[in-house]
Every structure is written in C-alpha cells, then in structure tokens.
Amino acid sequence: MWRTLFASLAGAVFGLGLVLSGMTDTLRVQGWLDFTGCWDPTLGFVLAGAILPMVLAWRLAAGRSLSALGTPFPPPPDTRLGAPLLVGSVLFGMGWALAGLCPGPALASASFGGWGGLLFILAMLAGMLGAPAARRLVESASERSKKGSKMEIRQLTDSYAVSPQIMPEDVAALKAAGFVRVICNRPDGENPPALQAAEMRRHVESAGMEFVENPVTPGQFTPDLIARQSKAMQAPGPVFAYCASGNRSSVVWALTQAGHQPADALIATAARWGYNLEPFRAMLG
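Structure (tokenized):
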C-alpha cells in the first residue's frame, strides 16, 4: 500500500512539474530541438533543473542499500553502448521532434491534449508493444556483425563463473574449460531467437553439458529464484552462468551465499569483475 501511495505521489509531482515547466507545450519542445530555425532555449533551463536534484538523489542513494520504503535499489544499468541503445535513442529523438511529446508529457497532457494527444498515446502504446520484436531484430543484426567475438569467463569462485551473453560457437570453449553445467539467467525476451534458451540448450546439451534455465528479470531477485540458482549450482563440477552482462548472474550467486560469507567478501569478489553489489548489501547480511 505504501509503495503504491508513494508512487502515486511521485507521479503527481512529476506530472505537475511537466505542466508547469512547459514540457507539455509541443511548440516549446519543437522550438528547443530546432537548432537551425527559431531556436527556443528556455527548455534548457528545465533540463538543467531536472539534472541538479537528480545529482543530489544519486549521491544520497549511493550511501544507502535500501530505499525509504525498505526495498533494495535496482542494480546499475548496463553502460555498454550497443546497437539497441543507439537505434532506440535516434528513434526516440525523431519522434520527440516530430510530435513535440514524449511519454511523460503525453500522459500529463492527456486530459487537455485533444485528439492529437490521444493519437500520440495510442501510437506510443503500439510502439511499446512492438518494441520487443524490434529489439530482437536489431540485436540479431548486431550479433551477426560481431562474428568471431568471444565471451569472457569471469571466475567468481573455483566452481562458479559468469559471463555476458554467450554465442553458440562459445559452447565448445566452455566444454574445454571443464564446465559441466550452464545456467541461463537471461529472459528470452531480451534475445533474438538464435540466442534464446531453447536454442542454447540444444548447443550446450549436444556438447555433453547440462543446461538450466533460471531467467532473472532486472531487480527481481525473489526467494524462489535464489533457491533455483542455489540448486543449479550444486553440480559434480564447475558451473557457468550468463546473462546480458554477467551482473545478474553475479548478484543471484551472491544472494545464494548470504549468511555463509561476509557481505564485504561477496561484494569485493564481484567488484573484481566490475560488478557493483553494494545496492544489495542489506540482502547479503
């Protein structure tokens, strides 16, 4: 209940800020983006005003492991620059410039935006529904362009390693490295068909290794998920887990060790490979 109440309050404050700042005024937005025409710089002050409080919020959050409601902060986003981010950013910018609206302002102006605002919201929803399929196409094209790329086996312990997304051609190297089981922590919705769990299972099992699916939605590390990961890690030899970057496979590993190893040791182990487990300190004990 409190979570819903706080979310509603934050949404109301955010919406009020959008209306007061002029973000719902399509002419002002298009004027800000029209650098070669009648440029209107006033929206720059709005953006700067949004950045300043966020800097303070980030600094405050960096010293905390839990939110004000007692829930863990989500893991840091993947900072790698890839094709989905580039293509999505370009399309978002084009849509913003053409319509003068983006999702937040569109919803804030729903009551007075008229038919144009309603049409934008409907088109936005259609785009959101089609985004997963479009993303898979972009990622598939990106993966095909990176032929010969190799995963990096990141050893957290002698018997457990993680990695970013693996390719079918990487399976032989995993077998040669002595792994007996592969855990997929990446949901199928994030991958093109050639890299989804069923296809990877076929390659892994053909190489004589076991394959376990335990998809992790970012930020949702439930007790059941942790228990499944713990069971999958109990193998007669080294276990290898992968997700998009290896971060989720590291977090869920650390959560299986909570209470058995000090939180500082778990955080330090993951940090050697660039994974930040500090937001999960409270859950790690």
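The first strand starts at residue 154 and ends at 157. The chain is about 55% helix and 5% strand.
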